[in-house]
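User: I'm writing a short methods note and want a consistent example. For Glycosyl hydrolase family 25, I'll paste the sequence; you return only the structure tokens, no commentary, since I'll be parsing the reply automatically.
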Amino acid sequence: MGRWTGLAARLVNPLALGSLAFGLSACALFDFGPPGPDDYPVKGIDVSYYQEDINWRSVVADNTAFAWLKATEGGDWYDPKFDANWYGAAMAGLPRGAYHFWYFCRPAMEQVSWFLQHVPYDPYALPPVLDIEWVNSKTCPGHPPREVIISEVRIWLDAIERYYGKRPIIYTSISFYNDRLRGAFPGYFIWIASYKGHPIVRDPSLRWNFWQHTEAGRVSGIRGRVDRNVFNGSVREWQAFLQGRLRPES
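Assistant:
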């Protein structure tokens, strides 16, 4: 994954600041497994109304560097806690962004319009995120073919980038990525959900930038469980990401 493949390369070559190479061979060289979530210095969460009222100052104090907030789903559902989370996280000084959950039975431009209606333009916000994964839905059964998904998703990504001025991040599972997205969107940051192990173990060829490693995490300021994530890079790279100076591998 070039510079984005993470910590193991630094263990192999601590002077490497440009191209990083993370592979199982690096782990085998030192006879240890891949890094765990605690080995990544930049940690964050993603939330929705399921987390109810959040004390964002406590979240920040608990070593949380970023948060993505569910905003919309499809073309007709809006998270009732989005506004409180959007402004609450900002007031606490936490970098935050919004995410949209993709609905396969809505045209892309309907989903674009719905997102634009509910997510304010904020030049200081994190890039918008598109959450796309397989779901069992009675109202939208079936699995669209790769070419249809890629065409529709590209419409959403392009329109959102034009409006907000930031290239969106793609959140997905390893299975969906391999089934429908692999190779389709070079130049985009990829956020992978993998609860059963480090992404490099499950798919050594996978290119990823964020890792959602659990849906049952605990963070101060949130009463129940919460999704926890890590950024695949150093603190310095995270600052470059926040400033828009970091680019994913094409």
